[in-house]
Structures are given as C-alpha cells and as structure tokens.
Amino acid sequence: MSIQTLTTSQFRNLNYANIKFHQKLNFIVGDNGSGKSSLLESIFFLGHGKSFRTSKIENLINAESDKFVVSVKDDQNHQLGIQRDSNGNFDIKINGDSKFRLSDLAKHVAVQVITPETFKLFFGGPKERRRFIDLGLFHVEHQFSDLWRDFRKVLLQRNACLKNKIFGQQFDFWNDSFCQLSEQIAHVRAGYVSALSVELNIWLEILLPELASKIELHYSQGWSNKKDLKQVLAESAERERIYGHSLFGAHKFDVKFNYNKLNIDQILSRGQQKLFLIALTIAQSNLIFKSQNIAPIILIDDIGAELDETSRTALAKAISTITCQLFITAIDQTALEPIIPKSEKYKMFHVEHGVITSEDE
Ligand SMILES: Nc1ncnc2c1ncn2[C@@H]1O[C@H](COP(=O)(O)OP(=O)(O)O)[C@@H](O)[C@H]1O
Ligand SMILES: [Mg+2]
Asked: Greatest CA separation found in the chain?
C-alpha cells in the first residue's frame, strides 16, 4: 500500500497534522528537534504497534495529553487507525470497525525503517538481524506466522521443563515438536534467505557496484547444518540442564554478511554501511511486493552528510527504480537534492516546531 493521507493527533510534538503524501517519494526537511523523526515514528507505529526509538509507548503521547491517534487512508481508500491512551488501552480501527488487534494492522502495512543507529543495531548482535529477516518472512511466506506462533509456544514449554528440571515423557513430548517445528522453520527461512540474497545482489550492483560481487550472505539455521537438531540437543543435554533454556533451535538462527571472509561491518565506511542497509531493505521490500502486491513503505531517517557525490547519484538511480513508498528526512535540503531522481515527481515537506507544511500548498 501507499499512504495517501496521514492524520496524527497528540503524537509527540506533532499536535495535529493532516498530510497528503506523494504515492512514491516524500522528502522531509527540518531543524533538529522539529519533529521529522516523530513523523516517521507515527507511520512506523501503524505497521508495528511500537516505536523504533523507545520501548515506552507513553513517551509517544504528547506531554500535555493523555492519548494519541494516528490514522491513514491508503491508495485503495482503506482507513487504518490506532489510538493509544496513557492507561495502556489500544483502539484499532480498520475501515471504521473496531476490535482489531495490532497484528491485524501489521498484515495491511509493511513498514521498514533505516536510522543512523540501525547499522549499529544490525551488526551489534543477532537480535536485529533476526527481527529484520522475520519481518520479511511474515509478509512473504504465508505459513510463517502460524509456524512461528506454534514454535514460540513449544519453546516456552521446553524452556519451562529445562528450568524446572522436568524430564521424562513430558520433556520428550515438547522436545519432539520443538525439533519438528525448528526443522520446518529452518527450511522456510533458508528458502527466503536465498531469494533475499539474489535480490540483494541486484541492489548492491546499483548502490555499491565495486563491492557487490564480493559480498556474501551466510545463513545459519540455529544449529549445525551437518546434524539433526535432535542429535545436537542430545549431545548438549548436560549443558542445557545447567543453563536452563534451549541453546539450539529455530530461535537461534542468524544471517551474516561477509566481504572476503570478514564481517562487512569491519570493512565498510559509514557511508557504505548506509548504502548497504538501504540495498538490503529495498531487496526485502521487493520480495514483499512480489509476493503480496502490497508495496511496502521505507522510512529513512537522517539521510545525513556522509554520502559522497557518487553515492548520492547511485541512490538517485535506486530510488527511481523501486516500487515502494519512500519517506526520507534530512536537516538540510541541499543534502537531499542530489538524491532526487531528475525524472520523478515528489513532494517536499518542511517541519517546524511540530508543524508540517508541503512546498506546493
Ligand atoms: N511526548 C512528547 N511530547 C511533547 N514533545 C515531545 C515528546 N517527545 C518528544 N518531544 C519533542 O519533540 C521534538 C521533536 O523530536 P524529533 O521528532 O526527534 O525531532 P527531529 O527528528 O526533527 O530532530 C523534540 O524537541 C522533542 O523534545
Ligand atoms: Mg530525528
């Protein structure tokens, strides 16, 4: 989908905003503290029911209010809305009907975000990489969300047995389904990751052509791929009993990106890191688009100054090729101009003290 209009009320410093966006390219400029990230955050919130900046949802409610509202109308006239009050109550509306859950919203909107912190998170540990890949799987592989929900339940049961030292028949029961679901999930993930790898290469050729052919993606499924999970778990039974939780399985998967056998975060400059993550995010968006025909939304906060002339030209080329709706913020309009493709229409917004205005209005 693409967002046609966004309405926010009492979301951070955006007291009230009603904005008509461009179906593909939206650029947002404003000083520090004006509300650029808050605007992206409100869009992200609709797709995820959480923020990319804080785990405390209360922080999103304007300091002088007791609730916020974010709603959008998409290009097919669907209305999605979410209200959250300071007591923790959610009210989610789809086309005027209430009583939906956050996960119902996530089915309608695929939102991905890149911020200056994303790279640190992405290469700081497996958590963010897992989150990234599973977001794609959730949208692309229709059986994945059921599989994952079942797996989570079984993982909790298996961990509870290990923690409380319950063994015998009960443990064997959970262990069997744990292994079976892990193998199924690993199989679906491996297929997805290999499709992602092919798509990534296309975008690296545009954005980082000098490195593209040397960057390799490695998927590890969460246990040695030379052995059955059951065998691995049997061999590590002693250790699991000491730790009291599941040490191997589908929850321990990871993806690594290497350049000449080294992790790319040790090789790439900051500007290159940004381009790499943009390539990866566009690649995932394209897979989502191909499988669902829902054009995903990409938010890029603070495109920043670290991109040189060549990188900006490459980015302009990528932007003109993609099929998602893009929102890019910057402090300075001159940083944005080189990345705006010459032949494309777009909208430019200015934010000042939480007030958003469009250049052509
Ligand atoms: N809950 C809130 N209520 C009111 N103002 C807030 C709230 N949370 C953040 N702010 C303020 O909103 C402003 C906009 O922040 P932000 O969106 O991060 O700006 P930018 O990304 O443009 O630098 C900041 O000045 C911040 O102090
Ligand atoms: Mg910001």
From this structure: 70
